Amino acid sequence: KTLAPAQGQSIAPHSPAIRCGPGGVPMRRSIRRAAGAVFLLAARPSAQQGVDLILLRHGQSVNNVWPRQGPLGKVDGELSSEGLQEAASAGRCISDLGHQPDLVLASALLRTQQTALLAFPEKVIHVAPFVSETGWDSSWLHPASVPRPIDDQLDFIKKQFGPGMAELLSFAWATPQEKCFPPDWNRFLQWLWENNDLQDLLARSARRSSAARRPLIALVSHGNYLGEVLSASGWDEGHPGTAEVYSTFLPIDEVAGNQTGFSRLRVQGSICPGFPGEQSAKIIWAGLAIALASILVAAFIWCIGRQRRRGRICSQADPVSVVP
After folding, report:
1. Which residues pair with 51 in a beta bridge?
2. What is the reported pTM?
3. Confidence at residue 17, expressed as pLDDT on a 0 to 100 scale
4. 3-state secondary structure of 207
């Protein structure tokens, strides 16, 4: 749990957050977190070349808080005050592991851009295609998955963080905006492989000594999208929490000595535990669903009873006459 800032208080990047103690984290998750942290700190070179990839879910947004879930959500909703703290805390956790990414990517939606700017305040944040939230094509059902215009996103960032941080947000790789969709992991990998900056990173890494670490990339994306990617890669530890961080590895395929692209993602573990989200909102929605279902069942039973009573009345009022 984090403490929301006082009204008018700015959020410092990597600001500490108040979390549960060690006893508040399940033992299995703690073990996996430690294993992932060891992997990221070591960043050992491998006989198989590739890229170390940090996956970070955005902090809590206003659409994660009652009553804005689902169709009641805000178009391209921003981070809540608690989400701002969560994003900064995730950045602090990653920084404490001893490494900063060579390249930082965020989706075309505002909440990931805010998260990336707070988690990696000294890095240029590149908006990337094909990594936005699912439901992008159902604006009436999932308004949170619909982006604001780029100019509106930049204006919001400037007002919240100042012009200096807004200059760190780059849309050069994601214009026009509509080409950032649909969310598709395989298309993202193809786009990433063809990115000139990444190829330069790989080339520099190959020229360094064998003791050098692999290129490290951070991707800030969304719960449902990352959940599908992780599940497809064999991760079965549940839905990502807000601001949860995973260490993964993207191997490079080679055919006859020629590199052809990225292979299947390998998930090393959760290195920074996320936040479970607002449980009260889930309870309220569940209660409303149960209440609505109860009303529908009661109405159905009442209609059946009314039809039966009406049938008995009609049979008594119109007795069958017998012709002599």
Report:
1. 250
2. 0.78
3. 40
4. helix
